[in-house]
Amino acid sequence: MSALLGLRNIWVEYGDKIVLERVDLDVEAGSFVSIIGPSGAGKSSLLRIILGQEIPTRGTILLDGTPLTPECGPDRGVVFQRYPVFPHLSVLRNTVFGLECAKAPLSARLFGAARRAAMDEAVEMLNAVGLGDSLHLYPAQMSGGMQQRLAIAQALIKRPRILLLDEPFGALDPGIRTDMHELITRLWRDYSLTIIMVTHDIREAFGLGTRVVALDKRRHDPHAPHRFGATAVYDLPLRNKVDRTTDEEPGIPTNETLSIS
Q1: Which end of the chain is more exposed for a tag (fewer CB within 10 A), N or C?
Q2: What is the mean pLDDT of residues 146-150?
Q3: What domain count does the chain have?
């Protein structure tokens, strides 16, 4: 079976600086891929390329075997560490906005039956992320965890096939972070998502992912530190997590048992 997403010989260069080189990756539908690596290893650059925000210097990205167009599309959603919510819109209007842009790009407004259907769909999604009782709040009235739930609802409202997470839980307190882990695991299962997540937290990477990919440079030149780029130095499939509701976290290494240098 062919992969849902395929990266073929991806390079990212800025002038004489090479960020990524020779990245080859296949991502199967339904998988949860955690990407780890040191700062500057190109993790976020890789996510932006998959999203369509950037074009690789060289290489090809395939979705269902077809080259992706160099633009953001509804088949990919993204959640960042900082919440890209609209401060002047309520929770419900923030969520409906994505449907308005998709279905009425010229006016960005829906009317009549189409608007009622969009509202119902947004309420359903907000219930799914735990904000069903907060529809009329504004972002300034919400905690960081609630704003991150709203950002997830915004990303999922158009039912993307691939959800990209760029260190989405890094700014949250440990207790809230645990709740968000449970939420994203449930959404991944309930909506049959394919997730690619960048994180600096090795425990988070192994606790959530079905596969962990480590990016780093294979070669270093102290006289020309930008001469070589990062690539996938480890690609570790994990055993399937059949029951994500248990407290068991299989195969989670410590910093001492996994080196990404």
Answers
A1: N
A2: 93
A3: 1
